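To close the section, here is one more complete example, presented without commentary so you can practise reading it yourself. The ligand is nickel (II) ion.
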Amino acid sequence: MNITYFGHSCFDVEINGKHILFDPFITPNELAKHIDINTVKADYILISHGHFDHIADAVAIANRTGAKVVSNYEIITWLTKQGVTNSHPMNIGGTWKFDFGSVKCVAAVHSSTLPDGTNGGNPMGFIIESSAGNFYYAGDTALTYDMKLIGDYHKIDFSLLPIGDNFTMVVESAITATDFINCKKVIGMHYDTFGFIKIDKQDAIKKFAAAGGELILFEIGETKSIKK
Ligand code: NI
Ligand code: MN
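Output:
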């Protein structure tokens, strides 16, 4: 799978020729000024929760690309009022098969209020299963014992986990999460964007390695091929 990082928690994962864009937050991100959102590809846009730093560019990219937006019912209702026409509402516990593979919505321990104060439902993570591989995109979450269900019932090839602390898991919690998920390969997200979540990246990589894991960090704009 080719994965491109657009900063914060925004990734394009190319699966079976389709571009799945997660949590688009690019134009307000000071670290992503070199990214032109008009070049961002999307066949699907998956949104984990309603916070600004996960949804800021969703409407613009959805309208330009015609991508199908997948999120919880409350967020889809809100995006529809903003002009999004192609969407699929889901909620925690549900799975749906799309043309690239399946999406299962799982619990995240966080909050989800939308930028204008509207109730954004409950925050979610996603398990993507496809012929190209399976992965877990955690969204914003604390470490939670629910992650054990993922490890017990899914074969995960890699996870995208928040590691920036303050709003989400800290590195040590993400390492514990890899035990629950039963997958040691992690792509880090939700770090460095704001003052509250600045981390020592080399130290984080060392801590994962010391625990027998692997932490992969991208430059913003970088594409890597991640093998299952
Ligand atoms: Ni959040
Ligand atoms: Mn966030």
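Once you have examined the tokens, check your reading against these statements. The first helix runs from residue 52 to 55. The domain at 2-225 is CATH 3.60.15.10 (Metallo-beta-lactamase; Chain A).
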